[in-house]
Amino acid sequence: MNAPAHLQYDVSLRPFNTFGIDARARAFLPVETADELRAVRDSDELAALPRLVLGGGSNILLTGDAVDALVLQMRGRGIAIVGETADATLVRAAAGENWHGFVLHTLAHGLPGLENLSLIPGSVGAAPIQNIGAYGSEIGDVFHSLTAFDFDSGELLSLDRAACRFGYRDSVFKHALKDRAVILDVTFALPKRWQPNLAYAELAREIQARGIAAPDAQAVSDAVIAIRQRKLPDPAQIGNAGSFFKNPVVSKEQRDALLAAHPQLVSHLQADGSYKLAAGWLIDQCGWKGRSLGAAGVYEKQALVLVNRGGARGGEIAALARAIQDDVARAYGVMLEPEPVFI
């Protein structure tokens, strides 16, 4: 079978990753439909290449100067109400839709449920892979189902919430379906009987500071956007991938020992009795906030964010991440795990 018409070779990926790393892809294909993925699978040349699926490029770190793979950049568009249940309205979005744009679309159409996840960079199709979350919410809370193309069988998969096996920044797409399934669209069950989720203390304080006694979903979204804009750099201005490290989860015994040695330790009790530590606090306490190694740095306003100060190579950012991990491990006995995927 002939190669897809839009296939390109030796393409810079700088415009397609929010760190702004100038690595070059061996082959590059914009994808809108499942038929284009079938053409890749049926091509002897392309099927033999490793694959890298890109959405908004906001959760990857390109560590080398070249990506010896076929890069599939998902560009499908479309948002529609596709049904309802007694409790929810079902809204489907194509994988290539911008995540924040999709959130704003749902709010503009009177469909709350995603407001706490406002201004997260990336695409709709990438959101389930990471089970993105912020300010007390995760997409797993309002997820209904998704459609994915299975490179093993050449067929479409339909996965419900249970099949996606959501965990903290985790899903089946990082395990059994890794390098196999490509998400085409995602359907969300947005609640008809909505209540604001203000469990996250910083968000509750922001709403209170705005003098809003009974916030609607738009007010919650506005507050989340304001908080994020104060703390996090715009990838269009400073290359970054948002929060670079996961908040580590430790046992009660380990947390109690750490708290005894470090009374200011920031931790949050989880439903299973474990504790989630604030990775940004740990990094800040190790003196990394605002520091740089070459052109790679730690953002001055939020120690959890690593940035490209201009012309950084992926290897420099990876080296900075390792240095931070080593310092936190020495000081607290905790190993931080990166959120972005290293390529």
From TrEMBL:
Pathway: Cell wall biogenesis; peptidoglycan biosynthesis. One of its GO terms (biological process) is regulation of cell shape. Keywords: Cell cycle, Cell division, Cell shape, Cell wall biogenesis/degradation, Cytoplasm, FAD, Flavoprotein, NADP, Oxidoreductase, Peptidoglycan synthesis. Pfam families: FAD_binding_4 (PF01565), MurB_C (PF02873). Residues 21-193 form the FAD-binding PCMH-type domain. The active site is at 169, 243 (proton donor), 339. One of its GO terms (cellular component) is cytosol. The keyword GTP-binding does not apply. Its EC number is 1.3.1.98. It comes from the Bacteria. The keyword Cell cycle applies. Its cofactor is FAD. It is found in: Cytoplasm. GO terms for molecular function: FAD binding; UDP-N-acetylmuramate dehydrogenase activity. It catalyses: UDP-N-acetyl-alpha-D-muramate + NADP(+) = UDP-N-acetyl-3-O-(1-carboxyvinyl)-alpha-D-glucosamine + NADPH + H(+). Belongs to the MurB family. Cell wall formation. This is UDP-N-acetylenolpyruvoylglucosamine reductase. It comes from Noviherbaspirillum pedocola.
